[in-house]
């Protein structure tokens, strides 16, 4: 829900999500928004009107650490705003700290100070820069397993339980471009996407969101409605994992 979007467009998107039977994850405004309570109150009320008592996931902010918001400022904002939003959300789940990459120290401090605790924790995962080799982009996916394990250990040590993990943005590089030799290489995109999703599934991540579905260099669906190589890989994995029940072997944590 970027500031450039109209309220009508936000509601239209929510109605589209509801119409296909999906759950909504709403990225709320966070500490960087000087009008955060009013903006987020409007969004929560809109989602209440569309989804009623159906669960809606609310992520507080978006990569605010990348914007220079330290963990204390982020958590102070969370502690001020989220309790008010939780009281008005009919069935809201609130998620943080939404780091642009995994940061164990940031997560630990957030969990120590957050009141209320988040319902789920989140961060974003990429495996390389667009200029790196294809092999490095693929092999670095293994770091995701380490991050997930470290996060669960941090949660258990800090609050006594391992909350569900949401990787709310992922792809191979945050700066992909059409000429980087990867996004236009069907073999690479198939191999990378398959390994990425198998890693997330094997680590029993609660939910993950590929960046981005349409109107982007990362699109999984082209403008004419046909799937890209990454879209086909995701379709094949869905067929195998969910329809046929053949999930990757769980990792040892």
Explain what this protein looks like in three dimensions:
This protein is α/β, with parallel strands linked by helices and about 250 residues long. It is about 45% helix and about 15% strand. The chain contains 8 helices and 6 strands, in the order H-E-H-E-H-E-H-E-H-H-E-H-E-H. It has helices spanning about 5-20, 35-50, 70-90, 105-115, 135-140, 140-160, 185-200, 230-245; strands spanning about 25-30, 55-60, 90-100, 120-125, 165-170, 205-210. The protein has a 6-stranded parallel β-sheet with strand order 1-2-3-4-5-6. Strand 1 (about 25-30), helix 2 and strand 2 form a beta-alpha-beta unit. The mean pLDDT is about 95.
* CA distance, first residue to last residue: 35 Å
**Which percent bin holds the helix content?**
40-55%
Largest sheet: 6 strands, parallel
Major sheet strand order = 1-2-3-4-5-6
> pLDDT under 50 segments (min length 5)?
none
The outline comes out as globular
Number of strands: 6
Structural category: alpha/beta
Rg from C-alpha positions? 18 Å
Put simply, the count of helices is: 8
User: In what range is the share of β-strand residues?
Assistant: 5-15%
Summarize the topology.
Blueprint: H1 7-19, E1 24-28, H2 36-51, E2 56-60, H3 71-88, E3 92-99, H4 104-113, E4 120-126, H5 134-139, H6 142-159, E5 165-171, H7 186-202, E6 207-210, H8 229-243
Parallel strand pairs: 1-2, 2-3, 3-4, 4-5, 5-6
Helix pairs in contact: 1-2, 2-3, 3-4, 4-6, 7-8
Descriptors for this entry?
253 residues, 6-stranded parallel β-sheet, single chain, alpha/beta
């Amino acid at each position: 829900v970027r500031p450039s979007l109209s309220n009508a467009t936000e509601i239209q998107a929510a109605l589209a999500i509801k119409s296909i039977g999906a759950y909504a994850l709403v990225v709320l405004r966070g500490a960087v928004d000087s009008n955060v309570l009013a903006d987020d109150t409007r969004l929560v009320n809109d989602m209440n009107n569309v989804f009623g008592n159906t669960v809606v996931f609310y992520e507080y902010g978006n990569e605010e650490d990348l914007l220079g918001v330290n963990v204390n400022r982020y958590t102070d904002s969370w502690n001020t705003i989220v309790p008010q939003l939780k009281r008005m959300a009919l069935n809201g789940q609130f998620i943080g700290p939404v780091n642009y990459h995994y940061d164990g120290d940031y997560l630990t401090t957030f969990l120590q100070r957050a009141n209320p605790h988040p319902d789920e924790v989140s961060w974003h995962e990429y495996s390389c820069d667009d200029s790196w080799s294809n092999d490095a982009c693929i092999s670095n996916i293994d770091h995701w397993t380490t991050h997930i394990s470290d996060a669960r250990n941090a949660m258990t040590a800090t609050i006594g339980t391992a909350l569900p993990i949401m990787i709310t943005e992922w792809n191979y590089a945050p700066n992909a471009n059409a000429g980087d030799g990867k996004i236009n290489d069907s073999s690479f995109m198939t191999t990378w996407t398959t390994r990425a999703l198998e890693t997330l599934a094997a680590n029993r991540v609660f939910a993950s969101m590929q960046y981005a579905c349409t109107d982007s260099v990362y699109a999984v669906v082209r403008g004419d409605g046909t799937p890209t190589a990454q879209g086909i890989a995701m379709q094949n994995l869905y067929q195998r994992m969910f329809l046929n029940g053949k999930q990757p072997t769980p990792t040892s944590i």
